[in-house]
Hints:
The chain has helices at 37-40, 60-67, 93-96, 98-123, 137-140, 160-169, 210-219, and strands spanning 10-11, 14-15, 20-22, 26-28, 32-33, 50-54, 72-78, 128-132, 145-151, 171-180, 182-183, 190-192, 206-209, 222-234, 239-250. By secondary structure, it is an alpha/beta fold.
Amino acid sequence: MLHPVERKFSFGNCFFYHTMDLPGVGIVRGQWQIRDFQQYIGFVDLTNKSVLDVGTASGFLSFEAERAGAAQVTSFDADSVERMFRLPFRESLFWKDWHAWVKENQLWLEGLKAGYRVAHDQLGSKAQTHYGDIFQLRQLFPDGFDVTMAGAILEHLNDPVSALASIASVTRERLIIAFTPIVEHDEVLLQAATSWADPAADFTWWVGSRGMYRKVLENMGFEIERISPSLAFMEPEGTAVKRSTLVARRRTPMPAARG
Length: 259
């Protein structure tokens, strides 16, 4: 999810996480540009699938999923910054004055939501939008989805293991963890994503190992199909950044929803 330091990537009162070409508006610049959606999501076929986009931000992945033939798309993100945590730095506003931090950063989150609404309207999208708690997905969506996508979100959560399990719990067929760093190790590990020395980078927590993803997903009834290179470009310079996209397939039938 976009951090407040990237507010320069804005259009009116909107914030855009991804660069988009909007009818009637033109190119709006975000923090990232995705030039090949299929490689970004690990070449999963979305045709006629129900899709959940977790951490939708300004909606680019949702709208591209529609373009790729998804039958139904649901966009999901946090309803409030009160659900978010930041790395421990006593001088940071989050730890000095949490209420002031919430007030300041809620403006950023509302800007992302405004960007989503503008893009949704201009593109004529039929995607449904839900905001809430990522750790409560099974309560929010008991029927689940054929495919779930989570792009560059887990590293920004203080508890990525529980979030990954929550995402898996609403996935019937395939789960996509897109454009995320993965430690090449088969042990179950969480590694600090940064040096934890820069308060300006307090929004990036953990990098999971291949073993962590495998174990959590196996425990949730999945197997990893592939981990492939994933490319996106930082705006405005267009600097290429290479990470990984993990695709997992459910091995066991998803439990029926409780009535």
